[in-house]
Specification:
Helix content is 73%, strand content 0%. The protein is an all-alpha fold. It folds into two domains: 60 residues, DnaJ domain (Helix Hairpins), CATH 1.10.287.110; 79 residues, Up-down Bundle (Monooxygenase).
Length: 172
């Protein structure tokens, strides 16, 4: 293992979007057991610092690999199509219209069932986009197309956070 290995190599996993979360979790636990600084306490401060670097690196990789959105963005970057979400916010008109429709529906929703229904519809769209990303990355090896879908997923994810906040208000 090298600190500069990509996350997939570090975890001994194939560079693909479709990963089993349980396998990612198991590999993380195994790597953490190998590099945890406490294992190196008798070997001095330098060994503990190096172990700390490894532990941070393993945790960083785990955070990316366990989250489908982060994993997709990372794969796009590895394959030469970085997301550049802060500079590239261009989206198709139909997608923007859908976003506006969802925002209006959330603003107009007066009760928990209406908000939950909206969340269900948005979750279904999110699942479709994730399937599109998986096909683009794993079947067609089209990182550019996947990057466009990942940017859309980022919008959808932020909207779902807003919807969940609204749902939490009904629980108060």
């Amino acid at each position: 293992m090298k600190l500069d290995d990509d996350d997939f190599t570090l975890f001994g996993l194939p560079q693909r979007f479709a990963l089993e979360r349980a396998e990612v979790d198991q590999r993380w636990r195994s790597l953490q057991a190998q590099v945890h600084p406490d294992r190196f306490s008798a070997q001095g401060a330098a060994s503990q610092r190096l172990a700390m670097q490894w532990a941070v690196r393993v945790n960083q990789a785990y955070q990316r690999l366990k989250d489908p959105l982060a994993r997709a963005a990372y794969l796009c970057e590895l394959r030469g199509a970085p997301i550049n979400a802060e500079r590239n916010t261009a989206m198709p008109v139909s997608f923007l219209a859908q976003q506006m429709h969802w925002r209006e529906a959330l603003d107009e929703a007066e009760d928990e069932p209406a908000v939950q229904s909206l969340d269900d519809a948005v979750a279904a769209r999110e699942a479709e986009l994730l399937d599109d990303v998986a096909r683009a990355l794993d079947e067609r090896n089209d990182a550019a197309a996947a990057a466009d879908k990942v940017r859309a997923l980022m919008f959808v994810h932020r909207f779902r956070v807003d919807v969940n906040r609204r749902l939490e208000q009904f629980d108060l």
